[in-house]
Amino acid sequence: MEGKTCLGVILSLSPSKDRYCALSFNVSFTYVFVILICAAGAHMSEAQVELNQWLKTLETAQPLAHKLFAPSPETQKKDGYFHTLREICQQPLTWTATADLLSRNMARLQAALGDVKSIVLTGSGSSEYVGDCVRLELQNRLGIPVSVVGGGTLVAHGSNAIPPVRPALMVSIARSGDSPESFAALSLFLNSDPQIRHLVITCNEKGRLAAAASPNVTVLMLDDSTNDRSLVMTSSFTNLVLAARSLAYTAAPEKYKSTCQALSQIASHVLLHDFGKLAAIAETPFRRAVFLADSNRYGAAREGALKMLEATGGRVATMSETYLGFRHGPMSFAHSDALIVCFLSSDPSLRAFERDLLHELEQKELGMAKVVVGEKIPADLLREGDVAIECPGMQSVGDHGAPVIDVLVAQLLAFFRSQHEGLHPDAPSDGVINRVVQNFQMHFRSASQ
What we know:
Elements: E1 9-12, E2 23-27, E3 30-34, H1 44-61, H2 63-69, H3 73-78, H4 82-89, H5 91-103, H6 106-113, E4 118-122, H7 126-142, E5 146-148, H8 151-157, E6 168-174, H9 180-192, E7 196-202, E8 217-221, H10 235-245, H11 253-282, E9 288-292, H12 297-311, E10 317-321, H13 323-326, E11 338-343, H14 348-363, E12 369-374, E13 387-390, H15 394-401, H16 403-420
Parallel strand pairs: 1-8, 4-5, 4-6, 6-7, 7-8, 9-10, 9-11, 11-12, 12-13
Antiparallel strand pairs: 2-3
């Protein structure tokens, strides 16, 4: 696509257009009202004012938050956490803004879906896990096959890597849109398979994927505030999940918005009530972390494991697994220095399987401690030293909505552990990995292969 004039549909929420809509949080007995200005020409400073008001509320509720936000921005940057902490904490605000953007453009998304008979969700690293978080819901609500294929797999194997069902929609998901394999995969399929139309969901208006708009490519641009400046993906990840979920709600935009609003309220509750609690367990002497989840929440488990690995520069070994899959070998990872992070399903059948596995871990005395995330967490799942992250409203949004809450918890654990390890959360790897993967040579298959 380079060197060509590209015209297409770009959906954007930028300072020059409608910015945000009114948002209110109902958190336990505390009501936090955040008024976000709805007006053409709203300035970035207005959004910043609202973010600052929300952070002040968080500081009032959580002494540790006050301790972290009290130093000057320059000091926070010097200590290496300025971007990551804000990008984690801003998520309740950004989620409703993303919901507003998507709900105003459901007709265009419906046109992108058209008469497709299959969907391929693709991305690299965390962006691939976004697809894992939404695949089942899209497949169930749209009634067509939906698969998740990593960008590297598409580049390495071409059309052999995706189902042969056409016409198809390929959804390319990316924070920066500049990862070499992401752009290469889009270019490859644009040139080789005209029966595939493309939707790009990205946070970076200056990225290569954002510039790929053409008659066969629709570009969905999220607000620049979701384009994390930190090395690790935080608010970009959860907003990309919510944006991708919108494909299942093109005929029900109000339901989509109300679900995002409910998720925003749950996230606010977690931040206001569990910020310090998660910091405390992140400083306990675990050297391994296991993330357990079922169905689409397994995508959140994969992302949680990656966040802890990235944020600690590999000092904490991590893995993710399903509850049923954990018995088949991975349980050997649950040494006495392992933190077990359990995303507990709202589905009664799934929760029964999960409870059985957690009781088995207790009987075998495996793991150091657990962090259990869910609503109405049974007391018999907790022992001394365990932490329950109770999320009122989680059952109402169901397991399809829960991944963004799970990931928020994982992000906080990773952030605090990174600090405990003496690292800088904004850039914890000393150059081993980069915010955007550096360019590398592509080796495409020939048509005969």
